[in-house]
Design goal:
- It comes from Prunus yedoensis var. nudiflora.
- One of its GO terms (biological process) is protein homooligomerization.
- This is BTB/POZ domain-containing protein.
- By secondary structure, this protein is of the alpha+beta class.
- The chain contains five helices and 15 strands.
- It has two domains: 17-107, 2-Layer Sandwich (Potassium Channel Kv1.1, Chain A), CATH 3.30.710.10; 131-260, 7 Propeller (Methylamine Dehydrogenase, Chain H), CATH 2.130.10.10.
- It is 15% helix and 35% strand.
- The strands form four sheets. A four-stranded antiparallel sheet has the order 4-5-6-7, with no helix packed on it. It has a four-stranded antiparallel sheet with strand order 8-9-10-11, with no helix packed on it. A four-stranded antiparallel sheet has the order 12-13-14-15, with no helix packed on it.
- Strand 1 (17-22) and strand 2 form a beta hairpin.
- The radius of gyration is 27 Å and the shape is elongated.
Length: 267
């Protein structure tokens, strides 16, 4: 019989409080806060823990950085104490807790304004340090061509890898897939595809025409892409030029777009 003093069955509730022992330091917060990291985060998984267990959940991580993480979940912003840690330290912890997207959003600069622009940071490749071309990703990462090398930097602008190409210098680069770059040089013929994950050359494309001897040593001057194609602008020593349409899935030439071949020689 209900006497008016009944209590709900134990279980997770957004108003319940939870204690966390992070690296020996005790934290107390609400389940709604730790659930703010999303259903796939480590902290959200703790919200399924029975509230009958009086012992704090132990997490063997840095408690000082965790206080920044907790503040981020509460307010969607970083506290002033975050300046005590490097961007990489914060990124590593956010990755561990599964809230990298929240940190990325909090650390992102405001929308670009041409009349109010300022330097966010400076990226300096370790070798052959004069950048000649760049390509950016939707996730905020950037690839930088310097000399005959390609260096990759993640959304946090931390160096994640460098590969050496066979080219002496790279003047055009396009991000064809998340791990595949199309590169060209105004001093060497051909368009080349490199795989960052496998650190290998996937193949090359050359503009040739056996019926026209003027089409030789065609160099790439620009590269662009669409969801299904790559567009490469080629230029020959005698100024013949064209744009080749290349299928992304096969890395094969589909067609030759409008260009200029000049007047054919008389025979």
């Amino acid at each position: 019989m209900d006497n008016g003093n009944s209590h709900p069955a134990p279980g997770p509730c957004t108003d319940d409080r939870i204690k966390l022992n992070v690296g020996g330091k005790l934290f107390e917060t609400t389940l709604s806060t730790i659930q703010a990291g999303g259903p796939d985060s480590l902290l959200a998984a703790l919200s399924n823990r029975s509230t009958d267990d009086p012992n704090p959940v132990f997490i063997d991580r840095d408690p000082e950085i965790f206080s920044v993480i907790l503040s981020l979940l509460r307010s969607n912003g970083l506290p002033s104490t975050a300046r005590r840690f490097s961007k990489q330290e914060l990124a590593d912890e956010a990755l561990y807790y599964g809230i990298e997207s929240q940190l990325k959003s909090a650390m992102s600069p405001p929308p670009f304004s041409g009349i109010d622009a300022s330097i966010v940071t400076t990226v300096q490749p370790a070798y052959d340090g004069c950048p000649s071309a760049i390509a950016t990703g939707d996730d905020g990462s950037v690839w930088i061509a310097h000399g005959g090398q390609l260096s990759s930097y993640d959304w946090n602008l931390s160096h994640s890898g460098t590969i050496r190409t066979h080219l002496e210098d790279i003047t055009s680069i396009c991000r064809v897939y998340p791990d595949i770059a199309a590169v060209g040089s105004e001093s060497s013929a051909g368009l080349y595809f490199y795989d960052f994950s496998g650190v290998r050359n996937l193949g090359s494309i050359h503009w040739t025409d056996p019926n026209d001897p003027r089409i030789f040593k065609a160099r790439v001057t620009a590269i662009a892409d669409s969801p299904s194609s790559v567009f490469a602008s080629f230029d020959c020593p005698h100024r013949e030029n064209c744009i080749l349409l290349i299928d992304k899935s096969t890395l094969k030439i589909v067609s030759e777009q409008a260009g200029s071949r000049g007047a054919r020689r008389r025979t």
